[in-house]
Structures are given as C-alpha cells and as structure tokens.
Amino acid sequence: MAVLTDTVRIRLWRATMRFLSSRLESANYTKPDLQAAINAADDWLNLNAAAYNTALTVPFRTNATFAQKALILAVVALARYDTQLLARLLGDVS
Length: 94
Fold this sequence. Notes:
single chain, 94 residues, mainly alpha, 5 helices
C-alpha cells in the first residue's frame, strides 16, 4: 500500500477535526498534534504492511485484495473504538 499523499492526509486531518468537533469530545492536543498523528499512523501502516499481511491467514492473505485487507484492519480498529460508528459504516453488526 502506498503512503497517502500530503493532500489526502490534510483532507483526513480536516475531516477528523470536523468529526471530533461534532461529537463534542474534549482533547488536550493541538490541531498540528492531530495532523502529526494522522501522518504517523499512515507512516506506521506503510512500515508494518508486511507484518500485517503475514499475520493474516494464508487463504485470506493470498486471495483478498489490498482493499479487502485494509477494510478488515479498519473494521477491527473501529470495533475497538466505536461500535456505533462501525454500524453506520457496515450496517447491523450484531
């Protein structure tokens, strides 16, 4: 998977700020801190893509597309954070 472009990272940063503001969540970090976190997460995904791929079962790893593998990672991460948001993305998760 390729690292996101600076333009995409900025769009994600802005969208994340809007999302967090709409939820009225308090935060003890600055906008630049959030932008740096998005950049770091993208860099981490790039550096650890091979380890993630190796962790997947062989049948899934060899047959799934990059997009499907990314979706699985995102779904698991989101399930740990916010199941209501996950349900809005996937529908019923019961």
